[in-house]
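Aim 2, interim progress. The first record below pairs a target sequence with its structure tokens.
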Amino acid sequence: EGEVEVTIVRDEISAVGWAEIEDTELTAEIAETAAVGTVVFDASEHLNRSEITGLSGPSALTFFVQETERPASVAKFKMEARSGRLVLVEKLDHEIQQEHLLTLGLRHKGSRDLIRLRISVTDANDHSPTFVRSRQEARVSEDALPGSLGAQLRAFDPDSGGNGLVRYEVMSGNDGGEWTLNEETGEVRVGEASPHRGEWVLVVRAEDGGEPARSETATLRILVGEGSASPPRFEREVYVLEIEEKTPLGTGLLQLFAESPDGGVVYFLGSPSPDEVAIHPISGLLRLKAPLDF
């Protein structure tokens, strides 16, 4: 079930037939978990009834959806022509589309009036963190000093805000304190009790910040011996892209490729990174995830 909250925001466009307010862009908020059949918005509550007479028979009002900003929004909602209720007819997903902008229409006695409705889809904690690999292996030199990087764990949660904030914790396998784990970055480093030559198996949990929290575990096998792992190498040191401002969201922008003699390459964007792009941790495909505005 989902709750719907409707507020009014200021806009300078006027509309005859709708309520006499200076604003003609309304906003509605609905949870992505809202059930099909939920009434998202009731247009009849925003009418100027002092200017409208004869609400039944041939002169009855007719409500309709004039247009949507994105084609995908059309299939999500249905306007009841007589009641003015906008009903959810297909499940929403905040991770795919966070906002829907519709232009609603009103017909009465041969005239037609329009008003904009902006629907915000709020996030729910409906995804668990997912490790790039549930079983990972790393090699560390027996001469590595405390603080040296031993492995990099990566878990991803597509939820937004605190629901998608991932923290890491060692559940078992580190009783002697040979390793330290950064709970925010997932970096596993050599601890003060430097490990001797041998093998360690750590069970690590990634947990999100939702209420209730969701989590997943992974196994990290660390081999300590002679030599050290070689870092991955990209094909180029610098990549340059030209992107049009109207490029559709989700468009693939660049296919990155890196090689490592030890395998197991994981792609991620360094900090700080632009909010407009995202990279797939396994394939290395860079995609557009937010609108561009130059």
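The second target in this work package is listed in the same format:
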Amino acid sequence: SDTEFDCNERKWKEGDIEVRLRELLSRNIQAVKLKGTSFGDAEEYYQWDALKNKYTDINANLLYVSNWPFYMEVGPSENGILKSDDIIGQEVPVRIIRNSFLNNNLHHFYIFDSSSPGVSKTTLARVMAMMENCNNLKNKIDPCGECSICKSIYSGKSSDIIELDAAKNRSVDDIRKISEAIAHGPLECKTRYVIIDEAHSLTGIAADATLKMTEEPPKNTRFIFCTTKKEKMIDTTISRSIDLSFSRISVKYISDNLKKICLLESISIDEESAHLIARKSKGSIRNSISYLEKVN
């Protein structure tokens, strides 16, 4: 039967949960069900073989679970690390970020907005962090996927990449912790990234605190606010940012991506099924992967 774990915490201390997972590693488990803030509100299912190879890193003391869900693992570039070119259906924001990076003209504050969730806003933010901090860029822009910086950012372990889900952590104390963390320079990266998802959920004193933080940014710090309801954000905050709009992804792009995933994962899918899932996904890559996993 399926085994369920709560993945709200990225890092668990050694104990019952690690013992259980160690046992699972040695058994023929077909699938595991994960739920928690790291994987979105919906329960998601993952093939256990993929999970144990891509999400867990067990050592003598700690079990780490990456906060990068399965849809970040599909269609990867060499070494499993995503590049900006791997982000499908968002040519305009990707081109703007790539050109700004190549011209050494990245802004300190971006807002990535869309009307739909699951259209690669947070994905591009993480790719930006790897692009700017990678020790061995390829083609002057693509993260190598081999250096310690790429690996730590990709696995969600970098202390210099701060992520906050404002839908669940929206208090002024949460923002104060970020302000205290960025008061000092980055530990291992050249540039620290603060990525706030569902940024429109920040209201009142918390929203004012983020305004102050982005108005007087510390050196070597970049902010990326992701939102699906930009109209709820403070006008002054928006005016201080570079606002990039992410569109719904077309049915064709999603269908082609699903077929690519199925080819990589040795899953059989016909054209009609891929098209049906793509239509059901309503422009969201994340939804399409979730539906694919449920019907597989």
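Residues 1-80 have pLDDT under 50 and may be disordered. This observation will shape the mutagenesis plan for the next reporting period.
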